[in-house]
Amino acid sequence: MKDLFGKAILDYQLGNYTEDIKTETSISEEDDLPLPYLFRSFKDMPKLERKALTLAKGKVLDIGCGAGSHALYLQDTKELEVTAVDISPNAIRACELRGVKDARNLDVMTLDSTEKYDTILLLMNGAGMCGKLEKLGAFLEKLKSILAPGGQILLDSSDIIYMFDDDEDGGVWIPADKSYYGEVDYIVKYKGETEPAFDWMYVDFTTLKKAANYCGLSCTCIMEGEHYDYLAKLTL
């Protein structure tokens, strides 16, 4: 991986902002992702994110922290102990420069299960990092292993069924090359470079709830957004 997402974040933090990230998926055309959006303050965040941050408590793990905006709000405004993790070394460097006290460059699947957290955050469709539905169970089991008694997992995602065409029988036409309609190939472009396509996933609430229940987790929809998105809470 070229870590273009992280390079863009670090460029912005260092004052080298000249252009935005471009993203594209196997079911959507190229679109701009403005870098300033990744550095947004609490008041500029979507309602689902603000609700999740309001619910956060205790020792927090922010998975896929990106530029660290969620972690900084919880650390500085709510004065919570926050660990921010991301697979992007450049993003973690930016988090450190912004003042995140505990920022780690790692894959959450490698996190020591002796560490326990009261709140695990997966915002901006963080559960999508599973890539494929077949990996969701193992991912949830890992999160369950690092969840403290009485703890919570807060994640948002979207049901992207609306992006597919209806067929003549009243159903929906789904490409045959994917085992689940929420699976997409995701491409990032930045400053003339293109990241190799990687697996990403949007999971509808019903599917998430079934996977969570299978793993021994309770799953509740806390809030629905304005465009097929939702915030869910998972507990032991």
From TrEMBL:
GO biological process terms held by the UniProt record: methylation
InterPro entries documented for this protein: Methyltransf_25 (IPR041698), SAM-dependent_MTases_sf (IPR029063)
Protein name stated in the entry: SAM-dependent methyltransferase
Pfam families named in the record: Methyltransf_25
Record-annotated Methyltransferase domain positions: 60-151
Keyword set, alphabetical order: Methyltransferase, Transferase
Top-level taxon of the source organism: Bacteria
Lineage: Bacteria, Pseudomonadati, Bacteroidota, Flavobacteriia, Flavobacteriales
Gene Ontology MF: a single term: methyltransferase activity
